[in-house]
Design goal:
Helices cover 38% and strands 22% of the residues. It is built from 16 helices and 21 strands. It has a 6-stranded mixed beta sheet, with helices on both faces.
């Protein structure tokens, strides 16, 4: 029986050699080609890129061979590249869309297939419906076209290219790179064995700024870590920071569309704090104005910043496939989510961990403040906000019973704090009377249930997370 290929919050992901096979990648590529043709985009061509995971370059070639056989010109990356770099190439080349072979932050045994639209955003829910229809049709016996890469290159249908130069040139229009180079700031970079390796050196090298990079060599096993830039995966960065010779630690995930930041004391700055700081930077330092788009998993600090700077804040379900359309519709200043991915107007409606890091560095330099001092500065405006997340593994077969248990749970309070409202747009979000919130939702890409909370103290956050797990019925 053919395995079901279903797109989650951002693409299809599966275990390599289990469901993520060359045959299934070709099925996805054929569906993408069919969509491009039906949407009248085939003559614009397609960009195809990949990350540093096991066999990613070979899966990308397989996709390119299918797309080229459908008469669609392919710009195929010469080497592994970050998702935002590949996504920007779609814009720069005015392509009709793109395919990226990556599983982002997932463990090493996973790989994935992302489809990007012509404006570089993640496939919208409407496009995903069309892609999945095509996949089902192909699995039922529709033809998969295929050619050999060398033949397609000889005919000029496939062109190998390097997406980095155009991307780095564009960054210089977004932020004063020379100022950061001259600043003399000392940075630890953790590339987490991913596609972002070497990029900060390429962008910021040659000046007074010093960069020490760890986990920069390709290793598809991601030994000793999962390539997700959150606190428990960044212990090596924290250890280096605690020695006192660095100003900030930066970490990018497997495909570098997410950023994690560690302060000068070795303390991880939560993704919610990072989002609020980046918003404050754009509002105060850059003087930008415009709507802010947040997912339900991100911080209430954005609502307070919206009040202070008189800009609207809109909330969506989790996933950039929901954030990006709203960014475009509202001409938003920025959009972001709890995972550490943030996108910006004037760039593209897609997450970019590299540009986010450069904005953060520019904020430090402009304010002449350390990361921990920037947090204090933020709190002086919006009040203290603390956050944490608990990831709970569960057997796939228990999902329905857990969902039923949560649906029937209608608590009047969470850890003694009154529940003001229950929001079920994306999971189960309990909005509490004191302004805190607790959210329980299933991951769209992994067999994991995530429990999130934000409150005015870390003690409250821990209590809410504990009560949240009890609500799931999982022991």
């Amino acid at each position: 029986m053919a395995s079901k290929i279903k797109f989650g919050t951002d693409g299809w992901r599966a275990i390599i050699a289990d469901d993520f096979t060359f045959d299934n990648v070709r099925i996805c590529a054929q569906s993408a080609a069919d969509y491009m043709k039906s949407a009248g985009l085939a003559n614009q061509g397609m960009v195809i890129g990949y990350d540093t995971r096991f066999a990613s370059e070979h899966f990308a070639v397989a996709a390119a061979e299918v797309v080229a056989a459908n008469g669609i010109k392919v710009h195929l990356c010469k080497s592994a590249a970050p998702t935002p770099v590949i996504s920007y190439a779609i814009l720069n080349l005015k392509a009709g869309g793109g395919i990226i072979i990556t599983a982002s932050h997932n463990p090493g045994q996973w790989n994935g297939f992302k489809f990007k639209q012509g404006d570089a955003r993640s496939a919208s829910p409407e496009v995903i419906v069309e892609l999945e229809k095509g996949i089902a049709r192909i699995q039922a016996g529709a033809e998969i076209k295929q050619t050999k890469l060398e033949d397609a290159i000889a005919k000029g249908i496939v062109i190998r290219f390097d997406p980095a130069p155009a991307y780095i040139k564009h960054l210089s229009d977004m932020v004063d790179i020379e100022k950061i180079r001259r600043s003399g700031i000392n940075i630890v970079v953790d590339s987490m064995y991913g596609a972002g390796a070497g990029y900060f050196h390429s962008i910021l090298g040659g000046g007074k700024t010093k960069i020490v990079e760890i986990h920069k060599k390709r290793n598809p096993l991601f030994p000793g870590l999962q390539p997700e830039p959150i606190a428990h995966n960044l212990t090596e960065v924290s250890t280096k920071m605690k020695k006192g010779s660095f100003d900030v630690g930066l970490a990018t995930d497997g495909d570098a569309d997410r950023i994690g930041i560690v302060d000068e004391k070795g303390v991880f700055i939560t993704t919610l704090q990072t989002y609020a700081l980046l918003a404050l930077y754009l509002l105060e330092v850059r003087g930008q104005r415009g709507p802010i788009i947040k997912t339900i998993t991100t911080t209430n600090m954005l609502f307070r910043l919206g009040e202070i700077y008189k800009v609207p804040v809109y909330e969506t379900a989790v996933g950039f496939k929901y954030v990006a359309p709203l960014m475009l519709a509202k001409d938003a200043m920025m959009g972001g989510e709890e995972s550490g991915g943030y996108g910006y107007r004037g760039h593209m409606p897609e997450r970019d961990g590299i540009l986010s890091a450069l904005f953060f560095l520019d904020f430090m330099i402009h304010k002449k403040k350390s990361p921990s001092q920037l947090i204090k500065y933020l709190y002086s405006k919006v009040g203290p906000h603390y956050y944490d997340r608990l990831d709970v593994d569960f057997p796939k077969e228990d999902r329905e019973s857990i969902m039923k248990h949560l649906t029937n749970s209608k608590p009047a309070d969470i850890a003694g704090t009154v529940v003001r409202e229950i929001d079920r747009r994306d999971g189960f979000r309990f909005l509490l009377k004191d302004g805190s919130w607790l959210l329980i939702r299933f991951s769209g890409t992994e067999p994991i249930m995530r429990i999130y909370s934000e409150s005015s103290s870390m003690e409250k956050v821990k209590r809410f997370l504990s009560e949240g797990k009890k609500l799931t019925g999982v022991k």
